[in-house]
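PROTOCOL LOG
Step 1. Enter all chains and additional molecules of the complex.
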Amino acid sequence: RGESSESRGALIVFEGLDRSGKTSQCSRLLSYLEGLGHSAELWRFPDRTTTVGQMVSAYLSNDLQLDDHTIHLLFSANRWEKRSMMEAKLRAGTTLLVDRYSYSGVAFSSAKGLDIGWCKAPEAGLLAPDLVLYLDIPPEKAVERGGYGGERYEKLEFQKKVAQCYKVLEDSSWKVIVCFILSFLAIELLTGFLLPTLDLCHLVAHHQESC
Ligand code: 2DT
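Step 2. Run joint prediction.
Step 3. Record the structure below.
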C-alpha cells in the first residue's frame, strides 16, 4: 500500500431491480471492509433527506405527480447535490458503497420510454464508479421475495422493462452477480471483485466522467 495521502477510497455502486438484495449486500460488505480496517460508508440514492430528495420521495409514494422528464432531472439533481461531498470522502480515503446511482436513473426513466441519450446527459460529470455490482435477479423471482410496497415503480410489468433497460447499460465497470449464487457466496464473490478494485484505487489519481 502506498502513502495514505496518495490513496483514495473506491466508489462501489450496487445496482439491480427492487428486492434484488442491494441493501443487504451493501451492509454485509460494509461490515466486511470495516473488519479489514478500511474506512467505508454506506450511501444511497435517492437520498431522501435533502429538499430535492423529499420531492423525489413524495413522487415515489404517489403523493406528488410530476412529468417524467421533471422527475428524471430531480433524481439527477439529487446526485449532483452530493457530488462534492462524495469527492471529499473519496479523497480522504473513505470507500463509498452506494445503493443505486446513475444507472438506476437511466434504466428507470428509459423504461418509461424516455430517450436514453436524453436520460444520460445530466449524469455526465458525476463521479464514475470504480466498480458496479449488478445483482441480477429475474423480475418474477424478485416479486416472490415479497416486500414490494406501494411505491410507484414496484410492479412486475414495469420491473421487467427496467431489467431490459439495465442490460443495455452494462459496461466494463460492471460485474454481474447472479442472485441465487449470491445468497451462498456473497462475501467471497464480492470481495473477489472488490479487493483488486481497492488496490487499483491507490493508483488512480483522477475520477473519470460517468456514463
Ligand atoms: P429505493 O427503493 O432504492 O429507495 O429506490 N430510481 C432511483 C429512479 O427512478 N431514478 C434514480 O436515479 C434512482 C437513484 C428506483 C426508489 C426508486 O427510485 C428509482 C427505485
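Step 4. Note key features.
Confidence is low (pLDDT under 50) at residues 1-5, 205-211.
The helical segments are 22-35, 51-60, 68-91, 102-111, 116-120, 139-144, 156-169, 179-201.
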